[in-house]
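WARN no homologs supplied; continuing
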Amino acid sequence: MDFQISVYTSLGSCLALSILYVSSLYVWSSEENRDHPSTVKKRFFSVFVVMLISPFFVYLFSSPNMFNYYTIWEVMGLRTKGLMSAVFIPLLLTMILFLGPLSVQLTNGIWKIYSEPMFWLNHCQNLLWIRNHIVAPLSEEFTFRACMLPLLLQSFTPITSIFITPMFFGVAHLHHMIERLRTGMDKKTAIVISFFQFFYTSIFGIYSAYLFMRTGHFVAPFIVHAFCNHMGFPDIPDLINQTEPKRCIFCLLYILGLVGWILLLPTMTYPSWYQNNQFWMNSSDFDYFFIMKSNTNIAIICFSTITVIFASKSDTSAINIPSFIKICNQTDPQLGNCIRNSIITLRPYLNRGIPELNVPSLEPLFVDEIKIEQTGNGMELSAAFKNISLSGVTRFRLRSVRTNITTGKFRMKVWFPNLVLNATYELRGKLLMMPLNGKGACFGNFTDIDGVLSMKINRVERNSQQYYQIDFISSEFNIGS
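OK structure emitted
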């Protein structure tokens, strides 16, 4: 079975799909930035409309003979045979690649948060989280993989197609340059960041296209895309700053993950595991392309490694600071007022998180453990609160901010109208001669809370970059009721 369409037809239809996808994001006239809830909701609607239209491109521009053997849904990777393998095996393969970062998260205790139902419940109500983890991967993989690849594979070999598709995918992300310029970023910085984004999205597009062709399933690149969005770039500076022997162990795990991914890539994507009998399996160079374990696969991984290193060492001045964050100059004589106004402006965004800066939602706030030790006046008390969920922290009012940039001291007074606490506790001690022991779940509903946050920071230099590190931080709270 040989299904052929002209090169102009396949490239033209894919270009039209790319233009349709990007232009749908800008059909709405709005002064708000891309993270504003109204903008996010409008773009959700836009990309879902594009997803409804995209299959018609596959149907109208494909070889008519193809649909005598396959349904349009099978060609687009929407099929049930081998589905469970496509859901889990490519994800496991990608987790092997992220062995180093996942190990760091495990030792940092981040995985404990993932076991909290409130963590997922809160994020499922967060528009930015839904956009980054569900809607963006779903719409992009559906349009750029499930709809474009079947068209390209009717004109090009798998080797060629796997490198053409990411170009459309990468170029489609250049539209972010428009938004960066709109927020006031200078042209040079906007161009550098946008082309770097084109670079790494194209890299991921190669891997994603590989998974789609190898498994014959849309769900495989979709789940992997969502996972990669969640993980982000490996934090190389954090790895470097680890103490020994942790740093050595983590470096080894990074390398093992990379090597393991390279070696397992052909095996864990073997087509028979996914019952993949798509039409491109008959291509004369399919076996050659997917059996080789060096040239193309090694090139992809080396390209990815260079991207990660470049990202971790890039100048922090090129970081895309969201427009709603007001930057304060340390020489400002009214620095305290500037910081106060910045925090007040930032408060509503803390409720839903700031993905651009890897700041999670603070509503509710999750804390692993708080320990309290109290002795004296006939009392000995040791209490440990674990798996703490604190709601209401973003509804604070900032009473005052005092700063001394010379000494690095900061002092803030805040007031919370209401805080709700859920946790587990373990209590040991005695009051006078009476023992106090117990453990279990606890709940607290507190109102009228005054707090004072004191902090001292110190400027340090790492890799020719200036950073501020926190030397100590303390807090005091008085609960009204």
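The beta strands are 365-376, 379-391, 397-404, 409-431, 434-462, 465-479.
OK
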